[in-house]
């Protein structure tokens, strides 16, 4: 799935990320990780590191014996990783129309050396350039977390995207305006990529994830389905059962990013699952098998969902209308060492994490039970034999 986030889903995920408890990544089944790198322990700088993807990377890197330093504002999950070095600062440039914005502060990064850096927290071109000016010459490799949204047609077609597909453009690559419904988000990620690649020629990995899911996901766009399996009963199943479904478990991505750092892998990569095509039907059946065999699925087509204003990957997780369901070619990522755990593992681990949230937790996405019941009744009324 290759959409750029909508305003609602982007804001929901971003707001939740500030308060989401990044719990240790649960493993429900044995998973064969990678052998230790032959390069030895690394000194790794993480720009961010305490949200969703950051902790998955940090945990994987610590498990491999690497030494971590986290640079951030110290506001998101500050108690995480008490034995890891933390540097506080502010990478954002203060916006001109906000006189109360804190000044940029990169002093803690000066006169320090690391083997590699993972940048999980950049949205604007200038802030990547500012960091790179300090780190270039003091860091051997730079991994930038971009987005599938950087592609020009990511949201508008069902074509296959490869790493050389056309990227988004903006007249002003230094704008600090994400635009209405975050229309500038993809292009700004693209220009952040350009800044990292220019500062670290031949030594920058430009990683373009689609939907990242699993334990700790603050957006709820995927978590809807694991918890729906728990509830059981008749489920409204979305769209074409054979629709191509792509996402990546945050733990798989975190482990692969450690591998990228260890091997100093460079270039652009589509960071999506899976090793083979996974359909929506296969995903739902995997959830039924792993969680609740009492689930049944009533498939409603795209036209019905559109007619009833069901929003994809927001109200209805893991669904995109076929006309816009693009495929991201991940063969390059797989050739660079990516592996993917079973769907059931991701589903069960997400449930274990989600059940630990407060009882009054306010969901940021997902269809409410009464809304689903109404749609099922409407579907059955329209399709009586």
Give a description of the structure:
The chain has 385 residues and is of the alpha/beta class. The protein has a single domain (7-382), classed as Rossmann fold (3-Layer(aba) Sandwich), CATH 3.40.50.720. The protein has 11 helices and 13 strands. A 7-stranded parallel beta sheet has the order 3-2-1-4-5-7-11, sandwiched between helices. Strands 6-13 form a two-stranded parallel sheet. Helix 2 links the parallel strand 1 and strand 2 (67-72). Helix 3 (125-135) runs parallel beside helix 4 (185-199) and helix 5 crosses helix 10 (343-354). The longest helix is centred in the middle third of the chain and has 15 residues, at 185-199. The radius of gyration is 21 Å and the shape is globular. The chain starts with 6 loop residues before the first helix and ends with a helix.
Jot down its keywords.
Rossmann fold; alpha/beta; 7-stranded parallel beta sheet; 385 residues; disordered N terminus; 15% strand; 11 helices; two-stranded parallel sheet
Q: Please identify which CATH superfamily we are dealing with.
A: NAD(P)-binding Rossmann-like Domain
User: How do the strands line up in the largest sheet?
Assistant: 3-2-1-4-5-7-11
Which structural class do you get from the secondary structure elements?
alpha/beta
Beta-strand proportion: 5-15%
How many structural domains are formed by the residues? 1
Mind telling me the C-alpha Rg?
A: 21 Å
Count every helix, treating DSSP H or I runs of 4 or more residues as helices. Answer: 11
Order of helices and strands: HEHEEEHEEHEEHEEHEHEHEHHH
Calculate the terminal CA-CA distance, rounded to whole Å. Answer: 34 Å
Given the C-alpha coordinates, what overall shape results? globular
The number of E-state strands comes to 13
CATH architecture: 3-Layer(aba) Sandwich
According to CATH, what is the topology? Rossmann fold
Helix content: 25-40%
């Amino acid at each position: 799935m290759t959409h750029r986030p909508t305003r609602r889903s982007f804001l929901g995920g971003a707001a939740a990320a500030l308060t989401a408890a990044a719990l240790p990544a649960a493993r429900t089944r044995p998973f064969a990780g990678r052998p230790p790198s032959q390069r030895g322990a690394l000194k790794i700088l993480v720009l961010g590191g305490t949200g969703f993807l950051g902790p998955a990377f940090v945990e994987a890197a610590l498990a491999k014996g690497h030494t971590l330093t986290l640079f951030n504002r110290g506001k998101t999950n500050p108690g995480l990783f008490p034995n890891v070095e933390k540097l506080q600062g502010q990478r954002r440039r203060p916006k001109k129309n906000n006189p109360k914005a804190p000044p940029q502060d990169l002093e803690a990064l000066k006169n320090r050396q690391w083997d590699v850096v993972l940048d999980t927290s950049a949205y604007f071109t200038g802030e990547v350039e500012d960091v790179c000016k300090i780190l270039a010459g003091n860091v051997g490799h730079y991994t930038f977390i971009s987005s599938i949204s950087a592609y020009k047609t990511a949201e508008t077609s069902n074509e296959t995207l490869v790493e050389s597909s056309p990227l988004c453009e903006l007249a002003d690559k230094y704008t600090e305006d994400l635009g209405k419904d975050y229309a500038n988000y993809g292009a700004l990620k693209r220009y952040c990529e350009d800044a990292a690649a220019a500062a670290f020629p031949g030594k920058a990995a430009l990683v373009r994830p689609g939907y990242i899911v699993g334990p700790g996901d603050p957006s709820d766009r995927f978590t809807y389905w694991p918890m729906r399996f728990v509830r059981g009963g008749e489920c409204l199943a979305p769209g074409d059962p054979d629709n191509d479904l792509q996402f990546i478990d945050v733990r798989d991505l975190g482990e692969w990013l450690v591998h990228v750092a260890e091997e100093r892998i460079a270039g652009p990569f589509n960071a999506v699952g899976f090793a083979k095509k996974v359909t929506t039907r296969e995903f739902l059946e995997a959830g039924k098998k792993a969680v609740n065999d009492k689930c049944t699925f009533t498939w409603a087509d795209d036209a019905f969902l559109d007619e009833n204003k069901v929003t994809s990957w927001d109200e209805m997780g893991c669904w995109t209308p076929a006309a816009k369901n693009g495929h991201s070619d991940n063969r390059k990522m797989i050739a660079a060492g990516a592996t993917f755990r079973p769907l059931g593992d991701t589903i069960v681990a997400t449930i274990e994490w989600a059940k630990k949230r407060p009882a009054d937790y306010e969901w940021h996405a997902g269809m409410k039970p009464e809304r689903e019941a109404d749609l099922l009744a409407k579907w059955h009324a329209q399709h009586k034999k």
